[in-house]
Amino acid sequence: MLHVHFPIDAVLSIIVTLDGKSIEVGTIGNESFVEADAALGAVLTARTTICQVEGRVGRMPIDVFRQRLGSDSFARLMQNNVGAALYCTQQYLACNAKHSTLARCARWLLMTGDRARRAQFTLSRSFLGIMLSVREDDMRSATDELVRLGAVTYSNADVSIVDAHLLKQLSCECYAACKAAFAQSLSAE
Which of 12, 67, 152, 162 matches a 20 to 30 Å C-alpha distance to 19? Predict the structure, then answer.
């Protein structure tokens, strides 16, 4: 690790490849940072991070980051953030096992809009299917239903959140739970 990256209005995906297929194991936006492992003292990472929604990303050299960890308030903030990320990773594991593709898709689009700080972004259905680990036909059915209901528009790879309130209603509880976890991590002393 040479730098720690702090997305401002970009959305990054942490990808693991198993049996030749990629799967998203984490999404990072303006609520967190990459490489969170650095806050725990790690010096290497075995994952790949890609940009899924373009935007701005701040970066800090790893040696400066480690120096700042010497400050109690900075270290506590980073630890709280890593804790929120761990909570959300566990939440998403349960979400992927229990919630419908439609609810998970609504959650994912809401989170992406929050992280990108805009209601319009570029994201192909096939990439969204990879991120949610669902078949392309299932992904198309879910996004077509969100369009039919009037929550989003989807043209080629251009997504627009038209009715965020409706999208929240269609989303599973995991959206609110993780949003609250990261908000709490910023206010925790």
Answer: 12
The residue whose two tokens read 């936006």 is 29
Full pLDDT tens readout for the chain, 189 residues? 788 899 999 999 888 888 887 777 888 999 998 876 766 666 666 678 888 899 999 999 988 998 998 999 999 999 999 999 999 989 988 998 999 999 999 999 999 999 999 999 998 888 888 888 888 899 999 999 999 999 999 998 999 999 999 999 999 999 999 999 999 998 865
The residue extents of the domains of the chain are 3-187
Element (H, E) at 118: none
Choices 3.40.50.2300, 2.60.200.20, 1.10.10.10, 3.90.180.10: CATH for 3-187:
1.10.10.10
Determine contact, residues 85/186, Cβ cutoff 8 Å.
Answer: no
Classify residue 137 as exposed, middle or buried by CB count within 10 Å of its CB (0-12, 13-18, 19+). Answer: exposed
Which of 55, 178, 26 shows the shortest CA–CA distance to 110?
178
Alpha helices (runs of H) in the chain, residue ranges in sequence order? 62-68, 72-98, 101-116, 125-132, 136-149, 164-170, 174-187
